[in-house]
Amino acid sequence: MERDTAKPAKPTPARPWQRPRGGAAKPIAELMPQIGRTAFRRFGFVQSSVVTRWPEIVGPTHARVCAPEAIRFPPGEKSDGILDLVVAPAQAPLIQHVIPEIIERVNRFFGYRAVARVKLRQGTVKPPSATAPAKPPPSLKPIPMELGAGLRDIGDPELRAVLESLARGLGDESKA
């Protein structure tokens, strides 16, 4: 009997898995809902405008003593949520009596029955001016006369500011 004196071949080490390169680029619009969904679930807000426009929604009197903390919806739902409010301790009984009015105003803001219940938590409430972002200074560019005449009748100041900005941009394009 002869013995095979040749050494067996060493197995080649397995290459670690690598993500395939190339392929079509994904639009940012596909990625953003996934990124934002996590943050919104954590903080519980469907729209950040609820926080920024809280004094408009409930009025300046209530906005001084309570502030929204989160809106929690049942799993898979976008209605019948629970609005968590932070309330100044001395004002909690007052806010408890106006909860139906707050629910009505928040639902009117959303346009559907987004909130069914309110949960109060006593704590420190920041003044509305501290929670609202500082207003940007008005643009020094004049609005073209033919574009600005119709904007004076718009009652919503936020909508008017956006339309005036658009009019200024259109005025710049016509000169170029």
Task: Using the coordinates above, name the CATH class of the largest domain.
Answer: Alpha Beta
Measure the end-to-end span: 96 Å
Rg over alpha carbons: 28 Å
Which CATH architecture of the largest domain is right? 2-Layer Sandwich
Compute the average pLDDT.
75
Kindly give the count of domains.
2
Biggest sheet record: 3 strands, mixed
Structural class: alpha+beta
* Total count of strands: 3
Query: Would you identify the regions where 5 or more consecutive residues have pLDDT less than 50?
Result: none
- Helix count, DSSP H or I runs of 4 or more residues: 9
Q: What portion of the residues fall into strands of 2 or more residues?
A: 5-15%
How are the SSEs ordered, and which strands pair?
Elements (H helix, E strand, L loop, with lengths): L27 H16 L5 H4 L1 H5 L1 H6 E7 L8 E7 L4 H6 L1 H12 L4 E8 L5 H4 L13 H4 L8 H19 L1
Parallel strand pairs: 2-3
Antiparallel strand pairs: 1-2
Report on the architecture of this protein.
The chain has 176 residues and is an alpha+beta fold. The chain has helices at 28-43, 49-52, 54-58, 60-65, 92-97, 99-110, 128-131, 145-148, 157-175, and strands at residues 66-72, 81-87, 115-122. It has two domains: 31-131, GMP Synthetase, Chain A, domain 3, CATH 3.30.300; 145-175. The protein is flat, with a radius of gyration of 28 Å. The model has no long low-confidence stretch (mean pLDDT 75).
